[in-house]
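Protocol step 4 of 6: record predicted structures for both targets in the notebook before any analysis. Target 1:
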Amino acid sequence: MFNLLRMDLYRVKRSKSVYVCFGILMLMTIATVWLLWLTATPQGNRTAVSMGLLAQEEVQKQQQEAALELEGINTQIMFRQMGLDGGGYACIFGIWLMLFVCMDYQSGFIKNIMASYQKHWKYAGSKIMTAAIVNLIYMTLHLTVILICNQVSGMRVPNARIGDMLFYFGWAWVVTTAFAALIVLICVFSRSVAAGAIAAMLLGTGTLVMPLYFLLDMFHIGGWMKYTIYRMLSEGPGCYASVKDLYVYAAGAVLLVLYTTAAGIVLKRQDI
């Protein structure tokens, strides 16, 4: 499997999609910081007035509203809200992974791999390990850009405690890697770019999860959906307060193993 992993990492390095998707994520982040700077800082307010985005008489009111919005905000909350909470990060990451996996089926390369490896589950394992590595790089660079933008913009949002940031970063990485395993499962089951793309968008952004949760909650049977990927990313703890907060690590790890095993079983039974 490690030969497959080495090959996959080499292909990731040479592919354009991984850089394009990361570029889109960074553009979204920088645009969000820029809008926050326009509304939350005196210099940004003056720039907004000169650009015609804000009337001069509205500046004082805008500054008061911005002060209320930034109250209690730190860099960890910025990191969460700029992609992870709303599902934007999962959606972009899922689309990249869908392209990476489905490329093997479209090119026919999957037949060569399966002919060389009798244990087909190694293919799924390699893809998920590759996704986990790319996920870690994406999240690290995403956080780095946010911290740099915070300093350069002059907003000076307070830094979160290192322990809280590491706790959140760790479980968010586990849960988003479980999401990657789900996308791999859907791709190897359907062998379809369309199915993978739709799954990444609908599942990543919660478009399917939240309506289902509201429906089930009407009958008081929606409690288990607390452990779905989207709701954990949106509502998971930002710091460690008690052992109960570790549920995100446990649930994320269970889903990761479950989806990885399912993908291996699908590959074993497929006639490729």
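Target 2:
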Amino acid sequence: MHHLDYRNLGHETYWWDVLVLSPAAHDWLIHGLLSGWKRPRQQKHYPNLPQRLAHNWGRLPCSLKMLLVAAIFVALGASLSSNHVFGGGLGALIFILVLWL
């Protein structure tokens, strides 16, 4: 579990005040990689920008996350190909394959 906000301590709402994370994601990603391997009291600004972005990403509904990731794959496929329709379709196909794995 990772608290995003302590204002509702004891009356937290999942996915708004608290993210349910694996211990590895909590320790390695949130308090590791995104913080520069510093604990909150060691950081000059907590949460820092990467941590705030991860907090807000975690609050989004799963369906919206899937739409955003799909749009990124389609846009990347379209921008990397000379044929934008083919590239966008290729990006969508890669997204579907990644989703199934």
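Step 5 preliminary note on target 2. The chain has a mean pLDDT of 82. The radius of gyration is 17 Å.
Proceed to step 6 after PI sign-off.
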